[in-house]
Amino acid sequence: MSDVQLGMPALPAKPYPAEVHARLVADAKELIGRYPVARSALLPLLHLVQAEEGCVTPTGIRFCAEQLELTTAEVTAVATFYTMYRRRPAGKYHVGVCTNTLCAVLGGDQIFDELKQHLGVENNETTADGEISIEHIECNAACDYAPVVMVNWEFFDNQTPDSARQLVDDLRAGHDPRPTRGARLCSFKETSRILAGFPDERPGAVDASGAGGAPSLAGLRLAKGEALPGTPGAKVVAPRHEGTEA
Question: Are 57 and 26 in contact (CB under 8 A)?
Answer without folding.
Answer: no
